[in-house]
Design brief:
Elements lengths: L22 E2 L2 H7 L18 E2 L10 H9 L14 E4 L2 E4 L4 H6 L5 H16 L20
Antiparallel strand pairs: 1-2, 3-4
């Protein structure tokens, strides 16, 4: 609406808007949200230089959302980059989500059986070819959702 010259009022009970899928800035607000007694270390720089998504958003490079962002011209205010890693907050600690077999073996996020299943999943993904049904292993990619 603001693109069409309309004024927009955002109201939220939080000091930020967007609910559970919002981004928190400055960094000090993130520390407050997770009730961390110490603030961010000085080595992290200015808090306002950080913008942390509560739920990371991944965009398909040629998807509808990217087209909408281009149309509304908000891309002037965005930076796109390759994902370097994904992290989760569990039990008061931050963990890197494993993306390789080596990382999975060293991770405390999964037990022994989950690590074995994860390895099988990585092998499945690495060998998957949408033009070769032999690589589907009983999964129809056109009708199966990835829950």
């Amino acid at each position: 609406m603001s693109v069409n010259g309309k004024k927009v009022l955002h109201m939220d009970r939080n000091p930020y808007y967007g609910g559970e899928s919002s981004s928190i800035t400055p960094l000090e607000e993130l520390y407050k949200r997770f009730q961390l007694l110490e603030g961010p270390p000085e080595a992290m720089g200015r808090g306002r230089d950080w913008n942390v998504d509560l739920i990371p958003k991944f965009l398909m490079a040629n998807g509808q959302l990217v087209k909408m962002l281009l149309y509304t011209e908000v891309t002037r205010y965005l930076d796109f980059k390759v994902v370097e890693g994904s992290f989760v907050y569990k039990g008061g600690k931050i963990y890197k989500v494993p993306s390789t077999e080596t990382e999975a073996l060293a991770s405390n996020l999964m037990g022994m059986f989950e690590k074995r299943r994860f390895r099988k999943f990585l092998v499945f993904v690495a060998n998957f070819d949408e033009n070769d049904p032999k690589t589907f292993e009983g999964v129809d990619p056109q009708s199966t959702s990835m829950r």
